[in-house]
Write a structure and sequence with these properties.
The structure holds 3 protein chains of 3 kinds.
Chain A (H helix, E strand, L loop, with lengths): L14 E12 L2 E12 L2 E7 L5 H8 L10 E5 L2 E3 L5 E4 L11 H13 L6 H5 L15 H15 L3 E5 L7 H16 L3 E5 L10 E8 L2
Parallel strand pairs in A: 3-8, 3-9, 6-7, 7-8
Antiparallel strand pairs in A: 1-2, 1-4, 4-5
Chain B lengths: L1 H13 L6 H16 L4 H22 L2 H9 L2 H7 L4 H28 L6 H28 L7 H29 L4 H30 L2
Helix pairs in contact in B: 1-6, 2-3, 2-6, 3-6, 3-7, 3-8, 4-7, 6-7, 6-9, 7-8, 7-9, 8-9
Chain C lengths: L1 H4 L2 H33 L11 H30 L2 H32 L8 H22 L3 H33 L14 H38 L6 E6 L2
Helix pairs in contact in C: 2-7, 3-4, 3-6, 3-7, 4-5, 4-7, 5-6
The chains are: A alpha/beta, B mainly alpha, C mainly alpha.
């Protein structure tokens, strides 16, 4: 499990994100205000907080899915401001599998969408799904969907990972797989922002924890 | 775009005949019309063109919510955006699928069902040509309510309320074109106007669909 | 003008001045117009007393269309510049517009009963107004059934613009379709070339209706701005944000 895999060969360029006085609302309710943070390549940001406090909203804001006032969240690479879409993978908390497709088909579809070519099925064996290739996605367990999401992250090969509860529903083996993959991602200059109830111990250039708490 | 279309066709084939529901509704509606009219062929053949067009529009309305809601609900729409695939590509793919899997089967069924009303060859040809020419307008306006309502659970009825008024010109000229075809042929003025309506609806409705999808996505 | 009114505070200052103007304008014009149209003006030569229906019908139809045009303009402003006041204005125009549409339909139908002998005729104008009512209902439904305010505003602005561009197309289609089966021209409430003693009450009524529509829309917009402001200032409990570096 711990050997270096073909998915981790390249070194990523420098990226950073500036969050300045971000404020989030959901259906008129203010979730949080004055959120300021900086994350750069090689760094890991944990986002912790109870259910419904706004973790997922913050992740969507970071992924550029929610429209924000200008200068609230800025993504930059070495040469200037960028749009995050092309360099970011967002792992949602429930996966986004289409009922009716088999696991391999769903994996191949999204691999093609993101990279433009057929993704290597070996990524599925790497995350421990070799035996479930022809299972329909609606019959996958929560843990298997998590593992599928991990395989997608690997083949998408993007420098910024935004992950929503990546450990939920996973067994001990799966949790160590996640920490291992994230550690290797960080080691090659990737960035990770992870919302989680129980942050694991992952070494990185810098590890930060952002807590959203009731006052 | 081809990959999305191929995936949706595969899903439709595996859905256990879900795609055939509108088709069954179409046939049932026309059969009920025949029964309600007392089964008199002379009266029926006169009314068959408007009834078929109505049945076509209502059958199309039945599956409006399926055009975009699935992609919105399971988060695929957001992932398409992150994969760098524009909402234009996604909506074009979904609309082509809707036209291929829902609307086209209805048109294909039409010659068979028109036997219920005793239509002759030129009348059937006119009906089919008018349906085919009006099809883009139907797909676009159905797609518009599908895109406007894809972010909420309820809304089947709302789709009718939004789409139906916009469908009125297409309905008027669709029926008129079908009527005019046996006499005036393919160059009938009604057919040309119907074609124009389809073009206008695409030019107007397609950007609106893209805007509605983005609006639903960025406020979710 | 648009940019000036885009600021809610400035809009409220403007409407504090404009609301009484519109309100008194509506009261005076409607009072004078109603007196002139119902009592002060002579019956028309070919319609008799029935012509008085015109004074309530034509301005209602005009306001129904004007309100939707207002919605379309506000939608465009809201869509491009995302001004929240434009959303409030579009939303506040929708209910009065729908009610004026119903009024136009009801008075038109009453006219139809005396002029044509039936409550309803598939006449081009009547049919277009009926379709306009359905468009209004769809627009109102989007506003009331979409949960999130920002999303509702955005979706409603898209539908408002699409609906507005479609109205002339619908009108053209309906009139073309109408010309197929009606060769004889039917007398309409509101024929051109009216004598002056009929025109003055009609103009007064139109002015009064327009002032009333303006007044309703301004009041609605004010109320909407204030409601949103109070929602924003309601006790909120945002999460406390703490950022720490672990290693």
């Amino acid at each position: 499990m711990n050997q270096e895999t073909p998915y981790f060969q390249t070194q990523f360029a420098q990226y950073r994100v500036q969050i300045r006085n971000a404020e989030a609302r959901f259906d008129g309710r203010v979730l949080f205000t004055d959120l300021t943070a900086d994350v750069s390549s090689g760094e890991l940001l944990w986002i912790v907080g109870e259910n419904g406090i706004g973790k997922t909203t913050l992740l969507k804001m970071l992924a550029g899915l929610i429209r924000l006032p200008p200068k609230c969240i800025g993504w930059y690479d070495g040469s200037g401001a960028i749009r995050p879409e092309s360099s970011l993978s967002y792992q949602t908390h429930n996966g986004y599998t289409k009922a009716g497709l088999t696991l391999a088909e769903d994996f191949e579809f999204w691999g093609r969408m993101v990279t433009g070519s057929c993704p290597p099925l070996s990524a599925l064996s790497y995350v421990g799904l070799a035996t479930a290739l022809s299972t329909k996605t609606q019959h996958l367990s929560a843990g298997q969907k998590r593992r599928l999401s991990l395989a997608r992250l690997l083949v998408a090969n993007r420098p910024i990972w935004v992950m929503d509860e990546p450990m939920a529903g996973l067994d001990a083996d799966g949790r160590s797989l996640v920490t291992d993959i994230v550690r290797q991602h960080l080691a090659r200059g990737g960035m990770a922002v992870i919302a989680s109830h129980n942050p694991a111990d992952i070494a990185a250039e810098r590890v930060m924890r952002l807590t959203l708490g009731r006052q | 775009m081809r990959a999305i279309i191929a995936r949706d066709i595969k899903l439709a084939m595996r859905s256990g005949g879900h795609w055939a529901l509108s088709l069954i509704f179409f046939a049932l509606f026309l059969a009920l019309c025949g029964i309600a009219m007392g089964g008199q062929m002379t009266r029926l053949s006169e009314l068959s063109l408007p009834l078929t067009w109505l049945a076509f529009i209502f059958a199309a309305l039945l599956s409006v919510s399926q055009i975009f809601r699935g992609e919105m609900e399971d988060g695929s729409l957001a992932q398409f955006k992150l994969a760098g695939i524009g909402m234009g590509t996604v909506s074009a793919a979904k609309l082509i699928n809707y036209a291929l899997l829902t609307l086209l089967p209805l048109v294909v069924m039409t010659p068979l069902l028109s036997q219920l009303f005793g239509l002759n060859g030129p009348q059937i040809a006119g009906l089919i040509i008018s349906l085919l020419i009006g099809l883009p307008a139907v797909a676009i306006y159905m797609g518009l309510s599908g895109a406007l309502l894809c972010g909420q659970k309820t809304g089947g009825f709302l789709a009718i309320l939004i789409s139906a008024p916009l469908m009125i010109p297409t309905l008027i000229f669709g029926v008129a074109a079908a009527k005019a075809f046996p006499d005036s042929g393919i160059m009938a003025a009604e057919l040309r106007i119907l074609f124009g309506l389809s073009l206008v609806s695409v030019a107007l409705g397609f950007p609106a669909i893209i805007a509605a999808l983005s609006a639903n996505l960025e406020t979710s | 003008m648009i940019n000036y009114l885009a600021n809610p505070a400035r809009f409220l200052r403007f409407s504090r001045f404009a609301v009484p103007v519109a309100g008194w304008g509506a009261t005076i014009a409607l009072a004078a117009g109603l007196y002139l149209s119902l009592i002060g003006s002579p019956p028309a030569v070919d319609h008799g007393e029935n012509v008085r229906m015109m004074y309530v019908h034509v301005p209602a139809a005009w306001c129904a269309m004007a309100a939707y045009t207002g919605i379309a303009i506000a939608s465009l402003v809201s869509f491009i510049w995302r001004h929240p006041v434009a959303d409030s204005a579009a939303k506040s125009l929708a209910w009065p517009g729908a009610i004026f549409t119903v009024l136009a339909l009801v008075t038109g139908s009453l006219w139809g009963k005396v002029a044509w002998g039936t409550w309803w005729q598939w006449d081009g104008r009547m049919t277009s107004v009926l379709v306009l009512l359905f468009i209004y209902l769809g627009y109102l439904a989007i506003w009331s059934l979409t949960p999130d305010r920002r999303r509702a505003a955005r979706l409603a602005s898209i539908l408002g613009m699409v609906g507005w561009i479609n109205i002339p197309i619908i009108k053209f289609s309906v009139e073309w379709w109408n010309s197929l089966h009606q060769t004889a021209t039917i007398s309409q409430p509101g024929t051109p070339g009216l004598p002056a003693e009929l025109l003055l009450p009609l103009a007064l009524m139109a002015l009064g209706y327009t002032c009333l529509l303006t007044w309703l829309a301004l009041r609605g917009t004010e109320a909407d701005i204030v409601r949103q402001r109070s929602e924003r200032s309601a006790p909120q409990n945002p999460a406390k944000v703490t950022l720490e570096t672990l290693s």
